[in-house]
Amino acid sequence: MPAPALAAVALALLASAQGKAAAELPPPPEEPTAGVTRRYVVERIQFDGLERTRPSEVRRHLSIAEGEVLDDKAVLLSRLRLLQLGWFSRVETRVERGKERGLVVLVFEFTERNTLIVSDLVIGSTGPQPIYGGLGLSEGNFLGLGLGLSGAFVYGGAPAERPLDPSRFALRGSFYAPDVAFSGLPLVFGASAFALRGEELTCPDPECSLLGGHYGSAPRLRYERLGGELTAGIRPGPFERLLAGYRLERLNASESAGSIASGPLPSIRLGHSTLAALTGTYDRDTRNDLFFPTDGTRLALNIVLGSQALGGDYEYSRYLLQVESDHGLFGGHSLKLLGAAGAVQGEAPFFERFYPADFAYFSVGPALGRALELNFSTDSRYDAYLAMLGAEYGIPLWSQGRFFHRGYLALGARWLYSAARARAGRTRASSVPFSGEVALRLDTPIGSFNLSMGYALDNFL
Question: Which end of the chain has less Cβ packing within 10 Å, N or C?
Answer without folding.
Answer: C
